[in-house]
Specification:
The protein contains six helices and 15 strands. By secondary structure, it is of the alpha+beta class. Bound molecules: succinic acid (SIN). Succinic acid is lined by residues 91, 103-104, 121, 123, 135, 267, 269, 280, 282.
Length: 291
């Protein structure tokens, strides 16, 4: 449950029952006072995902400066970045991209196929469809906390193998430049086939809270079980992890910003605006090794 804290320099409007808040009174394009920066960061940690409206971050340097309030921008593999800005990717679905891949469209935690998955991301909306194109976020602290004691005992201390193979590996549907959308380029290759091991229950390095840390995009299996043995347990966890009461839904407007904490959330871009353009721009933030 999001903490209710008193703030002097910002106003908080909660969105979901469990996570998410719009922060009012901040111009992310301008330098913030130390106090305001501290309060924005505190609100980020206690709400897990924060939103801002009517921001001007069209200049990529301004967007990166805003992102530094939360962490250090980092380049991500496999997705073509903005020219001259390796830490920025343009996530674009064109009106012609009917029936094509919707980037971020499955429930996932960003880049858990890396040893150090992203801390989070700052996403900025440049163009939004007239309706639809929302982003959903699911609270993985709540997902863990509402498991039975028996399930918690079993999962605590377990590890799982993660891989980018399904999305970015040598056998993925994007391999060899196939199935690309009009304005995004995915470079799938054998680097995507690598396996990395992460705890199934992660302790957040800043809040100290425990959260579930498996996701259907990148988790392959529990490290000491076969895929067949892992599947029923993972399927249960994925269904449990996205219970309605754990979810916050964000309706984008041009100029909106979302900053999510990838260490305690899953998220998903809803693909319900075929025939319209959606263009959001993401700065990914360097994460640490999960414990
Ligand atoms: C993402 O998963 O980074 C994309 C989310 C979105 O486009 O809403």
């Amino acid at each position: 449950m999001a903490a209710t804290t008193h703030y002097d320099t910002i106003e908080i409007e909660p969105v979901g029952g469990s996570i998410g808040a719009v922060i009012h009174g901040v111009d992310l394009g301008a330098p913030l006072s130390n106090r305001q920066a501290e309060e924005v960061h505190a609100a980020f940690l206690s709400n897990s995902v924060v939103f801002f409206r009517d921001q001007d971050l069209v200049d990529p340097e301004r967007q990166k400066r805003a992102a530094r309030l939360f962490g250090e921008p980092v380049a991500i593999p496999f997705v073509k970045s903005l020219d001259g800005h390796p830490e920025i990717i343009d996530i674009v679905k064109e009106p012609e991209d009917i029936g094509k891949y919707n980037f971020g469209g499955n429930w996932h935690t960003d880049t858990t196929f890396l040893e150090t998955p992203a801390l989070g991301s700052l996403l900025y909306a440049l163009e939004v469809p007239p309706r639809g194109g929302d982003t959903l976020f699911a609270d993985q602290y709540a997902a863990y906390e509402t498991l039975s004691d028996g399930m918690k005992r079993m999962l605590d201390g377990m590890t799982a193998l993660h891989t980018g193979a399904r999305s970015y590996g040598s056998q993925s549907k994007f391999q060899g430049g196939k199935n690309q959308s009009v304005s995004m380029t995915i470079d799938a290759n054998e680097d995507g086939d690598k396996l990395v091991e992460h705890p199934v229950v992660r302790t957040h390095p800043e809040t100290g809270r425990k959260g579930l840390f498996v996701n259907p995009n990148y988790t392959l299996r529990f490290a000491d079980m076969t895929e067949a043995e892992s599947k029923p347990i993972l399927d249960f966890l994925y269904t449990h992890a996205i219970r309605d009461e754990f979810i916050c839904r964000f309706r984008w407007q041009k100029g909106s910003v979302a900053v999510w904490d990838n260490r305690c959330l899953m998220h998903r871009a809803v693909n319900d605006y075929e025939g319209h353009r959606r263009h959001v721009r993401r700065v990914t933030l360097q994460g640490d090794r999960p414990h």
